[in-house]
Amino acid sequence: MNKASEYLQSADSVESLEITRLVDLMISDAIESGASDIHIEPWDASLVVRIRLNGVLQELLHLPVELMEKVGGRLKVMANLVSYEMDRPQEGHAQTGQEMGGVELRMSFFPVVRGNHQGGVLRGEKIVIRIFDPNRRSFNLDDLGFEAPTLDTMKQLLSKPSGMILFTGPTGSGKTTAIYAALTHLVEKHGPAISISTVEDPVEYNLPMISQAQIHHAKEFTYPVALRSLMRQDPQVIMVGEIRDAETANIAVQAGLTGHLVISTIHSGSTAGVFARMINMKIEPFLLASSVIGVLGLRLIRTTCPYCAQPYQPEVSYQKLIPDTLLEEASLRNGGGCEHCAGTGFSGQASVTEMLEVDETMREAIMDKLPTRKLQDIAIERGMKTLWQAGIERVIRGETPLEEIIRSIPTDK
């Protein structure tokens, strides 16, 4: 049982609870468990607190629903927000003390409504707290768990003087961590001889020897405005937090063509689909073909707990997804659940990657505006290992169960 639940059970009544202590214990429990986020929201009969562990939400505790305003008010005080307002979104951040490891908490408050048993409507808030723990985050490229060919190709691309490297994947797939690791690699390799600037929304971690700027929409400091200004700052490497619109895409592509190494993220359904996405942003195919030098698709999967790992057999219908030649030599394992993994069977996460390197053949295909599926086929012919293939290899080695790959990655079938 966690400390917050113990405190809740030890109280004589709801009125006797110290909200400050309850909130501190709740946050401390989440940090100690290694959670990335805390979700607090009113359900029918309780105020539920859930934490995201290894990418999946798990219940931490249920609070009496009448504590909703007090808990929200306490968190708003911590984040220097207007504590009595519950009818508009608010965002803020707070720094914990050393007793909680000095982690940063980024809080988001969102107004919601819910029904009660009498048929009325009650107003409340959903609160999400993102936990940034500098002690748990590594920005070493070699420690991210990339497959060896992906790591080698990434280092080769980072050694190029110009061009654009794009990272793609859903929210929470490790894109920011991978980019920060790439920038750290460049600093370690070149030291003070390299000039690196970033434009982010928001800046998640402060990196040494790198100039980081944060977008401020209220002051009209947008990605395009920042990038235009950066071009006069003599940078060798430019990191753009995310390519969201045509104007940002166009400036980033031009920067990649004019002697800068540009690193950015873009949302796309697939790695090869990045090119169609940017063409839809009115970027000319010949400019894309000339500027983009590589695209890295990323997913995070949960890995089997080493303490309770055991041999297992997936469902027959799932087994058919594994080629027979690989199934014969497979060491399939899953976690049975133990105290080390809180009964989940999983411990930690690992990256699954898909590295698309843009060579001459791929450039010609992009300029011909070939469909995404054809671009992917060409990349596979040129040696690209798909996310699915990389995931299946981890299953074969017993690092994660097949069901986790099916949950996280679309099949090649």
Characterization of the model:
- The strands form 3 sheets. This protein has a 7-stranded mixed beta sheet, with helices on both faces.
- It has 2 domains: 3-132, Beta-Lactamase (2-Layer Sandwich); 141-408, P-loop containing nucleotide triphosphate hydrolases (Rossmann fold), CATH 3.40.50.
- It has helices at residues 3-10, 19-33, 68-78, 148-158, 175-190, 223-230, 246-257, 273-280, 285-291, 316-319, 324-327, 360-367, 372-381, 387-396, 402-408; strands spanning 37-42, 46-53, 56-64, 90-95, 104-115, 121-132, 163-168, 196-200, 211-214, 237-240, 261-265, 292-304, 309-311, 333-335, 346-357.
- Helix 1 runs antiparallel to helix 2 (19-33), helix 7 (246-257) packs across helix 9 (285-291) and helix 9 runs antiparallel to helix 12.
- The chain starts with a helix and ends in a 5-residue tail after the last helix.
- It is globular.
- Helix content is 34%, strand content 26%.
- The protein has 15 helices and 15 strands.
- The chain is an alpha/beta fold.
For this entry, what is the oligomeric state of its chains? single chain
Q: Strand order across the biggest sheet? A: 9-8-10-11-7-12-15
Question: Going by CATH, what is the homologous superfamily of the largest domain?
Answer: P-loop containing nucleotide triphosphate hydrolases
The portion of residues forming beta strands comes to 25-35%
Given as residue ranges, the uncertain stretches (5+ residues, pLDDT < 50) are none
- What would CATH call the class of the largest domain? Alpha Beta
* Topology-level CATH name of the largest domain: Rossmann fold
What's the number of helices? 15
Distance between the termini: 43 Å
How would a textbook summarize the main sheet? 7 strands, mixed
